[in-house]
Design brief:
The chain is an alpha/beta fold. The protein has 13 helices and 14 strands. It starts with a strand and ends in a 25-residue tail after the last helix.
């Protein structure tokens, strides 16, 4: 049995230049595991607590020395001597040691760093890749990428209100081809924006962030790029949206400033219905606010049989909120972000609950990322079939894509890539080519 011999943490920088925590777990076998924790910008109100120092003299108050100290002092003393392969035991010890509902004592960032680093150390000790350690012999589905190639909202200030405009290259026969298709569209979009005199600077997740006047204008540009790259929208490549609507839900109205609109829940649903009728959109994430449960019920009744409706801020990878969604028949898919809940075991519980009740899951990055590629292995291990990790740009995004290329090569003929088949509401004859 391999035992935890030491645990250390340090403060590093994420892709936005803000501090985050990195944890290293060392075992008596000589194996080590290292994990770094991402950070979100548009965070749900019900996420586990990301512990920050709030010391204005360091990093504008965003330092994580408290979380680092909690790992090096409190957690280290507790877990030395524990068997590294007993993930559930270790995660439960961390949760109990924290003792709060939102992990605000130790910090979800401290707990998650230790949780994932332990799993990596155990996998390395057994000489297994992480996806095989987590998924066993059944983990072999390479996820379809959902690539955020145009940014708005909190990811690109000054742009449109919707946060993410994604392409889904689900018509490909392999992940390798799907990634290539997405990259080719991304480069075509860059050239198109340049020709139109629009900015090609990128937002937090690698997508372009030009100043445009409407969401339809963004979508039309993406469709032009798909065509320029030699692909067919709706057949080769579909679209997905993440409005992150909680961010523009103010005084019970959805306020789309870029279009000078102030909409009720029903009007917002109608807005989406028109977009879905006109464009090859197969997934909408956080279409309504995290507390607009009645609106979500109506949204699901209207569009849930036609497209994928993903809850992110709505569910925050939390089994209590996912259970509420299941009971009230809200959404049909769950976004999975380990740092929203704070441990690997709890993340797996959220995934299993979703799958057992017919909900799809989408493993996701955060806007403030690191080069840690754990979510790529996790997506394959659980056979969830979908991953969000940004544009094929910036190394903290590409590290996940590159890891999936390695895994697909490692699995060879065992690798399964289902493309659009991973989308619950997908029907090949439903996708349409956008009207001119």
């Amino acid at each position: 049995m391999v035992m935890i011999e030491d645990i250390t943490a340090t403060e590093i920088l994420d892709s936005r230049g803000n501090p985050t925590i990195e944890v290293t777990v060392m075992l008596n076998s000589g194996a080590t595991g290292r994990a770094s924790v991402p950070s979100g910008a548009s965070t749900g109100a019900y996420e586990a607590c990301e512990l920050r120092d709030n010391d204005a003299k360091r990093y504008g108050g965003k330092g994580v020395l408290k979380a680092v100290g909690n790992v090096n002092d409190i957690i280290r003393k507790k877990l030395i001597g524990f068997p590294a392969t007993e993930q559930l035991l270790i995660d439960n010890e961390l949760i109990n040691l924290d003792g709060t509902k939102d992990k605000s004592y130790l910090g979800a960032n401290a707990i998650l760093g230790v949780s994932i680093a332990t799993a990596k150390a155990a996998a390395n000790s057994l000489k297994l890749p992480l996806f095989k350690y987590l998924g066993g012999i059944s983990g072999c589905t390479i996820p379809t990428p959902m690539m955020n190639i145009m940014n708005g909202g909190k990811h690109a200030l000054g742009g449109v209100d919707f946060q993410e405009f994604m392409i889904v290259p689900g018509g490909a026969n392999s992940f390798n081809d799907s990634l290539r298709w997405g990259s080719e569209v991304y480069q075509a979009l860059k050239s198109l924006l340049h020709k139109k005199g629009l900015a090609t600077t990128v937002g937090d997740e690698g997508g372009f962030a030009p100043s445009l006047k409407s969401h339809k204008e963004v979508i039309e540009l993406i469709l032009q790029a798909i065509d320029l790259a030699g692909f067919k929208a709706g057949t080769d490549i579909a679209l997905a949206l993440d409005p992150a609507s909680t961010e523009f839900y103010i005084d019970d109205k959805y306020r789309l400033e870029c279009e000078n609109l102030s909409l009720t829940s029903d009007q917002m649903i109608e807005y989406y219905e028109k977009l879905v009728a006109k464009y090859p959109i197969i997934s909408i994430e956080d279409g309504l606010s995290e507390d607009d449960w009645s609106g979500w019920e109506r949204l699901t009744k209207q569009l849930g049989s036609k497209i994928q409706l993903v809850g992110d801020d709505l569910f925050v990878t939390n089994v209590e909120r996912i259970n509420r969604g299941i009971t009230t028949k809200v959404a049909n898919a769950v976004l999975i972000k380990p740092n929203q809940i704070g441990s690997l075991s709890e993340t797996m519980n959220a995934i299993n609950l979703s799958h057992c009740n017919g909900y799809k899951t989408v493993v996701s990055h955060r806007s403030g990322e690191t080069d840690d590629s754990t979510i790529a292995d996790l997506a394959v291990a659980i056979n969830n079939g979908q991953i969000k990790t940004g544009a094929p740009c910036r190394q903290e995004r590409n590290s996940k894509y590159n890891q999936l290329l390695r895994i697909e090569k490692d699995l060879m003929i065992q690798a399964k890539f289902m493309g659009f088949g991973n989308f619950a509401a997908y029907q090949a004859n439903r996708l349409i080519t956008a009207k001119a």
